[in-house]
Amino acid sequence: MTRTIGRLALLSALLAAPAFAAQDDLRPNTAINGPALTFDWPALQVGVGTYEEGPTGLTIFRFPEGAAGVVDVRGGAPGSVNTDLLRVGSEDKFIDAIVFTGGGLYGMEAIAAVATGLKDNGEESGLWNETAIVPGAEIYDFQGHRLNEIYPDKRLARAALEELRPGVFPLGAQGAGRMAMQGGFFGCGAHSGQGGAFRQIGEVKIAVFTVVNAVGSVTDRDGRLVRCHQEPGARAGKTADMLARVPLNTANTSLKPVAGAPVPSRRNTTLSLIVTNRKLGAAALQRLAIQVHTSVARAVQPFSAFDDGDILFALSTQEVDAPDVRLDDLNTIAGEMMWDAVLASVPEE
C-alpha cells in the first residue's frame, strides 16, 4: 500500500510539472575554454556565450565602426535573420554585428537580443539611421546532439555582448559550435565546432570563421575524413572512396524528396563569415561570397545537401583601398583560408 501511494505521489508530481524547463537559473559562461585564434584587428570584436547545462551557445561578431556586407544562402533548410536586407546590395557600412547561434529556430531570440542590446546600451538608437542592424543564422543542436532543449536566449546574448574581445576567436567546441556535429551522411557521429583563420597581405586583412554542423564530413587536404566514429580510430579513409560507394554505406535514407520517403532531418548547417578591410563594392562582395562558399565544398563533403542550411556572410570594414591586391587573388586566398577554418573547427578528443 505504501509503495502504491509513493508511485501515485510521483505521478502527480510529474503531471504537475511544466512541459518546459525555465532557463532563468542557467549561468551564462562567456569565458574562453579552449584554443583560440588571435589576430590584430580593432575593427572586429568577438564574443561567445554558452549554457553548459545544454550545452549550447552563440558567437557574436561585432563591428564597432560598421561593415558593408552580402549573403550567400545554400542548402535546403536555412534558418536566418535579416538576410534579405543583405541581398539589396550596398557599399555603406550598415552592419553592426553578425550572430551565429545554436538552439535551432529558438536561438533566433539571441540574434534579436544583440540588436536590442546595442540599443539599450546606447551604442544605437531608434532613429532610422541609427537602428542596430544584426543579421544572423542558427544551427540545429537538439535531438541527436544532446538530451535537452535549452537554447541561447536573451540573457546569454546580453552576457556575450558585454564580454566582447578584439582579435580573439575561440576554436572548437565553443560558442555557437559548442555542440555542433558533422559526418551524419556516413553515420560518423563526430563532434565538430567553430573554426577560424586570419591572414594579412600588406595592409589587407582577411579573416574567415565557420561553425560546422554539417551532414557531410570534414575532409583534409589529403582527401581523408578528419574524424569518423563509424570505424575504429580517428580516420576512416578517403572521402572519395566512401562517396563512390553511395548509397551502400550511407546512413542517410532520404537523399532526395521522393513520395512516401521519410522527411529529411533538417538538422545540419554550416555557417560561415568572411571579413576583409579592403574596400569592396556590393558586386565584388557577392563574388567573394560565392567563390568562398563554393570552396567549402572541398572541406565538407557532401555539401549543401537537402537537409543542410548553409549560409555565408561576406563583409568589408572598408578601411583600405589596396588596389595592388587583385580581387581574384583575394577571393582565392580567402577560399583556401576557409578550408583551414573548417579543419580548425574539429576539437581534440
What's the quick description here?
This protein is of the alpha+beta class. The protein has helices at 2-16, 83-86, 108-120, 154-161, 239-244, 282-299, 327-344; strands at 36-38, 45-51, 56-73, 80-81, 95-101, 136-138, 165-166, 168-170, 181-182, 190-191, 194-201, 204-213, 217-218, 269-278, 300-301, 311-320.
Largest sheet: 10 strands, mixed
Order of helices and strands: HEEEEHEHEHEEEEEEEHEHEEH
Q: What is the count of DSSP helices, taking H or I runs of 4+ residues?
A: 7
Rg calc: 21 Å
- How many individual β-strands? 16
How large a portion of the residues is in β-strands, by DSSP E? 25-35%
Q: What do these coordinates show?
A:
With 349 residues, the chain is of the alpha+beta class. Helices cover 23% and strands 26% of the residues. It contains 7 helices and 16 strands. It has helices spanning 2-16, 83-86, 108-120, 154-161, 239-244, 282-299, 327-344; strands spanning 36-38, 45-51, 56-73, 80-81, 95-101, 136-138, 165-166, 168-170, 181-182, 190-191, 194-201, 204-213, 217-218, 269-278, 300-301, 311-320. The strands form 4 sheets. Strands 2, 3, 4, 5, 6, 7, 11, 12, 14 and 16 form a 10-stranded mixed beta sheet that branches. Helix 3 (108-120) crosses helix 4 (154-161) and helix 6 runs parallel beside helix 7 (327-344). The longest helix has 18 residues, at 282-299. The protein is globular, with a radius of gyration of 21 Å. It starts with a helix and ends in a 5-residue tail after the last helix.
